[in-house]
Structures are given as structure tokens and as C-alpha cells.
From TrEMBL:
Keyword check for Nucleotidyltransferase: no
UniProt xrefs under CDD domains: Radical_SAM, radical_SAM_B12_BD
Molecular function via GO: methyltransferase activity
Taxonomic placement: Bacteria, Bacillati, Actinomycetota, Acidimicrobiia, Acidimicrobiales
SUPFAM superfamilies listed in its UniProt record: Cobalamin (vitamin B12)-binding domain, Radical SAM enzymes
The protein's name in its UniProt record: Hopanoid C-3 methylase HpnR
Gene3D superfamilies registered for this protein in UniProt: Aldolase class I, Cobalamin-binding domain
Keywords: Iron, Iron-sulfur, Metal-binding, Methyltransferase, S-adenosyl-L-methionine, Transferase
Cofactors named for this entry: [4Fe-4S] cluster
B12-binding domain sequence ranges: 8-139
Pfam families: B12-binding (PF02310), Radical_SAM (PF04055)
GO annotation, biological process: methylation
UniProt entry tagged with the keyword Transmembrane: no
SMART domains from the UniProt entry: Elp3
């Protein structure tokens, strides 16, 4: 079959700091062996590219990736356009967020989306294409249609196969992260064994945790042409031996890259030698999700971590020589003093500090337990940059404080002092025709802007999110929350 896979456009956050390749659909494309597959990534192409593909390629199936809740309206509208242009083609949607709101998305689409595939796509997408000619969708694992459900989604037996079909994404020089421009992405492990209350990474994979073999990880790395690589794992190098095994393979194959990764502070403290080894191999940057500065906040998020370990991790990273970006979650309940306190703390540490806004997402425990009522059901505002819970400060003032905090932090890193340091990097990129990083330096004020963020709450809402439970649930049933129910806990 002729298959077109589409990744929606970038959200606010990605306009500034990074733009990464759509690994999920690259892996699905590779799994669709025997089919003629094309990919359009709307982060780097405009809408006209879809129209061109519909006209010239005439796909018999069009699949949309819906990892981000904020992309729901765009994907629903695109699906409607595709169905109108090619009424007999199969239109399907899959990905992280849509797995938690599948029924609502089908309703919004009013028949334009034939099926939502919950869970991992590598096994279900090929099964769907096999089943489509007979319309036997109820046999496809993870399938949700207007008529009912298929069997539960299946976890991939081995992550080693298929490796992503990176050759199908065009304009690869548009993918970057900070100064790593251009940058590809890679996956070493999938899932997370922790269970933070605000996160759906663990509920999606049923708290399972799987890894590629070191050989497959090195093989995938060898296929990457870009000099920079972002490791997309939620928590990288949970087990030191896995990090060493991949490093051994890369050494054997003499692969040298620059790396960016994300991990937990306790993992960094526990496995410092493996991070130090990766530093020698080209690891320069890392994200650390501190989330809260105090014990109470960490408990509320069930981070299973302490402020002491967080600070120790920053020491370790400095000692190793890594540039660290920290994330802190702003509670909509913050007042002016709290913002001031966070600004002062952030200014006192050399790390890059990033602030996101606490957002209950379907699929997280907070979605079920949060007692405060949502102030909006507009999917587009669920991007951790907008307040969707009641703010203690008037909303515009909350954004003023948020933007002030973000711009103080950005000036620290992207401003004149920092620019002097980054000027050489910037010049090198421009000389090589890479302008993503340089454009990012000047775009900040137009993206992070209190009027813009406040104004975005006033837009008409065409598609409304499902409501959370009327009464907050005290102790949610975990089995009910999982998209993939691992074998050991299946009832
Ligand atoms: C890498 C990543 C990013 C990258 C985006 C890369 C990209 N272009 O897609 C960056 C860094 C830009 C990013 C940004 C954000 N992210 Co992010 N991100 C991730 C992360 C860590 C891994 C995703 C990944 O690449 N996995 C590897 C690939 C192979 O898996 P996958 O994409 O999930 O695809 C599989 C399935 O989802 C499914 N699938 C996917 N697409 C399709 C399509 C079809 C048709 C089918 C059938 C199946 C299918 O099959 C694939 C193969 O099994 C996830 C956490 C996680 N563990 O999933 C969070 C996650 C998806 N991000 C999240 C969030 C909140 C964000 C941000 C809004 C905020 C932030 N500060 O992180 C921003 C904004 C996003 C934007 N669009 O601009 C949340 C999603 C919340 C939500 N419900 O919307 C997650 C779940 C993290 C979390 N812990 O809560 N993110
Ligand atoms: S926030 Fe990080 S550590 Fe916590 S559950 Fe999500 S991925 Fe795991």
C-alpha cells in the first residue's frame, strides 16, 4: 500500500530551543515492510507539502502521530481535509497522548479518522494495513474505532528491530537542539520504572522498561550522519552497565559524536563514572528534571528523590564538566514572592534553568487526583507553557511573572554575556549553513510574551478535552491507567 505518515507542527516550546526528528513514525515506517511509505514532518515542512503528497502520491493510508495533546485540534482538522480529498483512504492516528483520549478524538473527527491505535505502533500499524482491506479492524491490537475496541495493544518483543527509517525524513538539517545544530535523535531504552504523579511516561508503558542491545544501539548510531545526537530516553543510563556496554560498542566501531541526554539526578549521582566516560566520548549537555526545590514539592510529585541528591547531582555534573539544563515546575498557585525566590535561586546557579507550568494530563495520576478544577478544556493550552489550573495571581500577572522568570534565565544564557561565549559557536554554524541555533537566539521575545500567552486563552475553542473525574480519586487503580499492561500484572 502507499502510506503517508505525518508528524504535526511544532508547539511553542520547540519554536525556541529545539526541533527533533519524529523517531516514532520513522520506526513505524521501517516496520511497514513491503509498503511504499513516505513521511511528512510539519515541524519542517508547511501544509502545502501534504496537499502535494495527496495529489501526487495519492496515499491509500494516511497515519498521524499524536504524541502531544496540544496538537489534537491540528491533527483532527488535517484528518478531515485528508478524508475529504481521498474518501476511500484509511486515516489512522497513534502516539502517546492520543492513547489516553482515543474516544474523544474519534468523536471530534466525525468519521474522518477511521481508527486510533493505542500504544506502540511498530506491531499494530502493519497489522492494521493487513486488516484494512477486509475492514477487520476489531482484530488489530490497540485499535479503537467508533464501533468498538480491538485486543489490548502489544509491547514490541525486541526494540532492536526495526531501526528508524531516517532516510525518509527530508530537510534533516532543520533538526537541532540548542547549539547542537544539526542533531539527530536516538533511542536506547523505552519506558520508565519510576512513577511520578505528573508524568505519563510510566502509565503508557505499564511501568515497563526495555532496552536495545548494545550492538543494535551502535548500529543505529552508525547510520546517523549528523554530528550531534539527542538521546530521547526518559532516564538515560539507569543501569551503569548498559551505558558502558553501548560505549564499548561505539568505541569498537570508532563512532564519535556529540551527545545531549536527559536523566534523573539520583541516577547521575549513582552512576557518575558512566557519565564521565560518556563525557570523554562527546557528551556535553544534559537535562535534569529537578521539578521542585523543596522536599514537600518533590513528595507531591512523587519524585522519590531529595533536594540533597538534586544539589549533589549538580556538583557531579559540574565536576564532570557537563552543561546542565534544569527543569522546574511552576505551580499556578505561585505568588510574586515564590517567583522571586525561584528567580534568585536560578540566578545563583550556573546551570540553565527552564520553567514549565504544572499541567494535569490525561494518563497521569494528577489528572485523577487534582482537586482544583481546570480553567480551560482547550487542548492547545495543554503544552506546559500555559496555566490550565486556577492561578493565585490574576492570569495576566501570572504570565508576566512567568515570562519575567524565563527571560531573566534566558538572558543569563542567551543574552549578551552568554552571546560572547556562544558567538564563536554561532559563527561556526552560520558558516556551515546551519542557522537554527542563531535564529533561536533572537526569537525569544516574540515567543515568550505575557500578552501572547494570555491572548491564547481568549481564542474560540472548537474541540474540548474530556473532563477529569467529577470527584478527585484518592488512590487511582494503576492497572486502569496503563495503556500497555505488562504480562506480569495482567489480570
Ligand atoms: C523526545 C521527546 C520530545 C521531543 C519531541 C520529538 C518529536 N519531534 O516528536 C521534544 C524534546 C521536542 C519534546 C518536547 C515536548 N514534550 Co516531549 N517527549 C519526548 C519523549 C521523551 C520521547 C518521545 C520519543 O521520541 N520516543 C521514542 C519514539 C520511538 O516513541 P514515540 O514517539 O512515543 O512513538 C511511539 C508511540 O508513541 C507510537 N506512535 C507515535 N506516533 C505514532 C503514529 C501512528 C500512526 C501510530 C500508529 C503510532 C504512533 O508508536 C511509536 C513507536 O512505538 C516523550 C516521553 C516518552 N517516553 O514517550 C516526551 C513526551 C511525549 N513529551 C511531553 C511533553 C509534555 C513535551 C512538551 C509539551 C513539554 C516539555 N517541556 O517536554 C514539549 C513540546 C512538544 C512539541 N511538539 O513541541 C509529554 C507528553 C505530554 C502530553 N500528553 O502531551 C511526554 C509523554 C513526556 C512526559 N513525561 O510527560 N518532547
Ligand atoms: S518524570 Fe521522569 S522519572 Fe518520573 S516517571 Fe516520568 S520519565 Fe520517569
Amino acid at each position: 500500500m502507499r502510506v503517508l505518515l505525518v508528524h504535526p507542527g511544532a508547539l511553542m516550546y520547540s519554536e525556541i530551543f529545539l526541533r527533533l526528528e519524529p523517531l516514532g513514525i520513522e520506526r513505524i515506517a521501517a516496520a511497514l515492510r513491503g509498503h511504499d511509505v513516505r513521511i511528512v514532518d510539519l515541524q519542517v515542512y508547511d501544509r502545502r507539502e501534504i496537499d502535494r503528497q495527496l495529489r501526487e502520491f495519492r496515499p491509500e493510508a494516511v497515519g498521524f502521530s499524536l504524541n502531544y495533546l496540544a496538537n489534537v485540534p491540528d491533527v483532527v482538522d488535517l484528518a478531515k481535509d485528508v478524508k475529504a480529498a481521498l474518501p476511500t483512504s484509511l486515516v489512522f492516528v497513534g502516539g502517546h497522548s492520543v492513547s489516553f483520549v482515543a474516544e474523544q478524538v474519534l468523536e471530534h473527527a466525525e468519521g474522518a479518522i477511521d481508527v486510533v491505535l493505542k500504544g506502540e505502533g511498530e506491531t499494530s500499524a502493519p497489522r492494521l494495513l493487513d486488516a484494512w482491506p477486509d475492514r477487520a479492524l476489531s482484530e488489530v491490537p490497540g485499535a479503537v474505532t467508533m464501533d468498538g475496541y480491538g485486543p489490548p495493544p502489544k509491547l514490541l518483543e525486541s526494540l532492536d528491530d526495526p531501526l528508524p527509517a531516517r532516510h525518509l525524513t527530508g530537510r534533516r538539517n532543520k533538526y537541532f537542539i540548542g547549539v547542537m545544530d544539526p542533531a539527530a535523535s536516538i533511542e536506547f531504552t523505552r519506558g520508565c520504572p519510576w512513577d511520578c504523579s505528573f508524568c505519563s511516561a510510566w502509565t503508557f508503558y505499564g511501568r515497563s522498561y526495555r532496552k536495545l542491545s548494545p550492538e543494535a544501539a551502535a548500529e543505529d548510531m552508525a547510520r546517523i550522519e549528523e554530528p550531534g545526537v539527542f538521546i530521547v530516553d526518559d532516564v538515560t543510563f539507569i543501569k551503569a552497565e548498559d551505558g558502558h556496554a553501548i560505549a564499548d560498542e561505539l568505541d569498537k566501531r570508532k563512532i564519535k559524536k556529540e551527545y545531549y541526554l536527559e536523566t534523573r539526578t539520583d541516577v547521575l549521582v549513582r552512576n557518575q563514572e558512566v557519565f564521565a566516560r560518556w563525557k570523554r566520548m562527546g557528551l556535553n549537555y544534559m537535562f535534569l528534571g529537578l521539578e521542585a526545590l523543596d522536599e514537600e514539592g518533590l513528595k507531591a510529585f512523587r519524585k522519590r528523590n531529595t533536594p540533597k541528591v538534586n544539589l549533589e547531582a549538580l556538583e557531579v555534573a559540574r565536576k564532570i564538566g557537563l552543561t546542565v539544563a534544569i527543569n522546574i515546575i511552576a505551580d499556578p498557585d505561585w505568588d510574586v514572592e515564590r517567583f522571586e525566590y525561584v528567580r534568585a535561586w536560578a540566578a545563583s546557579v550556573p546551570e540553565i534553568v527552564n520553567i514549565t507550568v504544572q499541567t494535569p494530563y490525561p494518563g497521569t495520576e494528577t489528572w485523577l487526583t487534582e482537586a482544583r478544577k481546570l480553567t480551560t478544556l482547550d487542548y492547545r493550552l495543554f503544552d506546559v507553557q500555559h496555566a490550565v489550573l486556577p492561578t493565585r495571581l490574576p492570569l495576566h500577572q501570572f504570565y508576566e511573572e512567568l515570562v519575567k522568570t524565563q527571560s531573566v534565565l534566558a538572558r543569563k544564557h542567551l543574552g549578551f554575556a552568554a552571546l560572547a561565549v556562544t558567538a564563536r559557536t554561532a559563527a561556526r554554524h552560520v558558516l556551515h549553513g546551519q542557522t537554527n541555533f542563531v535564529k533561536m537566539l533572537w526569537k525569544f521575545n516574540s515567543v515568550y510574551n505575557a500578552d501572547r500567552q494570555f491572548g491564547e486563552h481568549q481564542r474560540p475553542v472548537r474541540y474540548s478535552m474530556p473532563l477529569p473525574p467529577e470527584q478527585p480519586v484518592l488512590v487511582p487503580d494503576r492497572q486502569e491507567m496503563y495503556v500497555h499492561v505488562p504480562f506480569r500484572s495482567r489480570r
